Automatic annotation (TrEMBL):
NCBIfam families membership: PRK14126.1
InterPro entries cross-referenced by the UniProt entry: Bac_CellDiv_Activator, Cell_div_ZapA-like, Cell_div_ZapA-like_sf, Cell_div_ZapA_firmicutes
Protein role: Activator of cell division through the inhibition of FtsZ GTPase activity, therefore promoting FtsZ assembly into bundles of protofilaments necessary for the formation of the division Z ring. It is recruited early at mid-cell but it is not essential for cell division.
GO biological process: division septum assembly; FtsZ-dependent cytokinesis; septin ring assembly
Single GO cellular component term: cell division site
Record text on subunit structure and interactions: Homodimer. Interacts with FtsZ.
Listed name of the protein: Cell division protein ZapA
Domain of life: Bacteria
Amino acid sequence: MGEQQKTRITVDIYGQQYSIVGAESSSHIRLVASIVDDKMREISAKNPTLDMTKLAVLTAVNVVHEYVKLKEEYDRLLQQTKKEKDD
């Protein structure tokens, strides 16, 4: 099995530079970084006294919450589609 080509890109998240390496395109990595940056800024605007660690953890919790809700909806739609096929 050959090694997949990696993309290395530097992104700015909440005023900090991060070097990200991944198998996805640079535009995908930039999009992900932008979403994280936006979410951190959203949470920070509502809670301006949070330190960076707490802000990062709350951002992770919020993003994972959104992921879980989307996964639940996806699974529900998948079951609905399967049921409609079976009917």
